[in-house]
């Protein structure tokens, strides 16, 4: 996924480095990509690289922030809201967006989950990934509240399991993972409708 409509050569230096890192980190993770490769692929001098980013970890944090801006907050949530008017349908539409994403040849799974598992929860990059995953869960909780679902915190955590699980299943090769998750998501919504809980 390119982060600009311009070619890397025409971007300012800071953005060019970030665009390069975005592509490399999202597909290969953090540890597999070295600073020398980042410098070479960005087409900048080592001194220039370190003038913009003091370390690879600092660049990786910028990558995670950009990933959040472009993907979940910049694409998935707005697109789900565009596809449906009611909050319940907007929640389900998340998996419709995922379904299209999973069919792409360049599907690269969830960078937040990958970085968390790669670096560990105690590493600064792992902690940042947890924070961004929490932001995603919070957006689900907001939609649950708008839909009038009960115990929206518990709902959001269960929903997030379906989101993350479908991504991992797609990475395993299950191209129907989002559709399977969407079906289970419908059951979860039904279980959290107030009248359903009162009748049970």
Distinctive features:
75% helix, mainly alpha, 200 residues
Structure description:
The chain is mainly α and 200 residues long. 75% of the residues lie in helices and 0% in strands. It contains ten helices and no strands. The protein has helices at residues 13-28, 35-42, 46-52, 56-83, 87-102, 111-119, 124-146, 152-172, 177-192, 194-199. The chain is elongated, with a radius of gyration of 19 Å. The termini are far apart.
List the helices and strands and how they pair.
Blueprint: H1 13-28, H2 35-42, H3 46-52, H4 56-83, H5 87-102, H6 111-119, H7 124-146, H8 152-172, H9 177-192, H10 194-199
Summarize the structure.
The protein has helices at 13-28, 35-42, 46-52, 56-83, 87-102, 111-119, 124-146, 152-172, 177-192, 194-199.
Rg calc: 19 Å
Shape: elongated
Strand content: under 5%
**Helical stretch tally:** 10
Q: What share of the residues lie within helices?
A: over 70%
């Amino acid at each position: 996924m390119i982060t600009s409509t311009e070619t890397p050569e025409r971007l300012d230096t800071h953005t060019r480095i970030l665009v390069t890192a975005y592509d490399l980190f999202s597909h290969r993770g953090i540890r597999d990509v070295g600073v020398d490769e980042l410098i070479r692929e960005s087409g900048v001098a080592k001194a220039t690289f370190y003038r913009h980013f003091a370390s690879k970890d600092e660049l990786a944090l910028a990558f995670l922030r950009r990933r959040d801006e472009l993907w979940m907050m910049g694409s998935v949530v707005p697109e789900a809201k565009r596809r449906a008017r009611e909050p319940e349908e907007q929640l389900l539409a998340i998996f419709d967006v995922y379904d299209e994403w999973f069919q792409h040849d360049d599907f690269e799974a969830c960078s937040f989950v990958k970085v968390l598992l790669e670096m560990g929860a105690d590493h600064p990059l792992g902690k940042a990934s947890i924070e961004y995953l929490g932001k995603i869960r919070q957006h689900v909780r907001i939609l649950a509240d708008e839909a009038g679902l009960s115990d929206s915190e518990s709902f959001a955590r269960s929903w997030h399991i379906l989101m993350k699980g479908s991504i991992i299943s797609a990475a395993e090769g299950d191209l129907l993972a989002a559709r399977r998750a969407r079906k289970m998501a419908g059951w979860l919504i039904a279980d959290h409708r107030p009248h359903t809980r009162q009748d049970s």
